[in-house]
Design a protein that fits this description.
Radius of gyration: 25 Å
């Protein structure tokens, strides 16, 4: 019996009323979806190669690259919105959009790749594409591109040390928007994922910073700016802790909340030489709270990577590194014991 016939019998029997609800589209097996996506990317690569061979002069020029890239990205965004139920079309549009973004990057950054303003301009373009495209993968990739464009802008301006608090703050802000406006989850979830990946790849990004500083401006601010970044990171961590406590129904003036806030601030300040550790900790807390196993595992790996990179880096003596790690570990142990004591004391009062 068809769905229509079954619905008519239910209506006749008085069990249900109204028109037949629209059925959910059946999803293909993952291997079928993967094969379709690969085929779409291969087709887009052949198309791009053909365009590069047919129109070399247009694509090499700044104006031609700008116009072609803008038209390509706009057309792909429209296609992704109109054909959001067609996997092949979506993936084909995603691949073409990435090519269009590459043309835009060439037009904006060509001969100006040391300019922080040009990198920020490209970041704004990527942010616009995040909003324009409804496809999850495209939004994640555009978020990553926007974040790294901001990172290059900071590096060439000599403010690379401020990127860690910025990316952590962007992650917590996207999470807050998701909590307060869950209906916009299709936008904020990929933004969270993209920003989290950028934050967890802090070690390789730091290596890129070193290369960028060699060709741009040297770091400014010195120790004062580094401590200011650590203080901002501590504030971001406290905001994340506050959100988790609010969601779990714990009182913000309780003993446990006070211990959590003190421990968060202490860890962030003690780990000032390892900002990637604090960024990964922020992602870990939010991911564990949201029940995301994949992001939780990546956050743990990011913390380990940040610690290993800091220990083997040549920017400080082994004594200073050991002292920072010892202080951070001691704060974590004391905070864990204090939180356990606070919870036990609360249970005793209830009894």
């Amino acid at each position: 019996m068809t769905r229509e016939g079954l619905w008519e019998r239910l209506v006749a029997g008085g069990v249900v009323s109204g028109p037949l609800p629209r059925g959910e589209p059946t999803s293909s097996p993952w291997y079928v979806s993967a094969m379709v996506a690969v085929a779409a990317w291969i087709a887009s690569i052949f198309l791009l190669v053909s365009l590069g061979i047919a129109l070399p002069a247009v694509l090499r020029g700044g104006t031609g690259s700008l116009v072609t890239g803008a038209l390509t990205c706009a057309a792909c965004a429209i296609v992704m919105r109109m054909r959001n139920d067609k996997l092949f079309v979506q993936q084909f549009a995603v691949a073409l959009s990435l090519a269009g973004q590459a043309l835009l990057a060439h037009a904006i950054l060509d001969a100006h790749w040391r300019s922080p303003e040009r990198w920020l301009m490209f970041a704004l373009v990527e942010a616009g594409l995040v909003v324009a495209s409804p496809v999850y993968v495209h939004r994640v990739l555009s978020t990553i591109a926007a974040a790294y464009a901001v990172r290059f802008a900071f590096a060439h301006a000599g403010l690379g040390v401020m990127f860690a608090p910025l990316v952590a703050g962007a992650f917590v802000a996207a999470w807050s928007c998701l909590r307060t406006r869950p209906v916009e989850g299709a936008l904020w979830r990929p933004v969270m994922a993209g920003v989290a990946l950028v934050g967890l790849l802090f070690v390789p990004a730091s290596l890129v910073d070193m290369l960028a500083w060699q060709v741009g401006k040297p770091p400014v601010g010195g120790v004062a700016l580094a401590w200011a970044a650590a203080a901002i990171l501590a504030g971001v961590l406290l905001v994340a802790i506050r959100g988790i406590l609010h969601d779990t129904g714990a009182g913000l003036r309780s003993r446990t909340a006070g211990i959590a806030f003190a421990a968060g601030a202490g860890i962030a300040l003690a780990a000032q030489p390892v900002p990637g550790l604090v960024v990964a900790l922020v992602v870990l807390l939010v991911a564990f709270h949201e029940g995301s196993r994949t992001l939780t595992g990546l956050a743990i790996a990011g913390m380990i990577g940040a610690l290993v990179h800091h220990y083997y880096a040549l920017d400080a003596t082994l004594l200073a590194k050991s002292g920072a790690l010892l202080a951070t570990g001691a704060i974590v142990l004391v905070a864990g014991a204090a939180v356990g004591y606070g919870l036990a004391d609360a249970e005793t009062r209830r009894a």
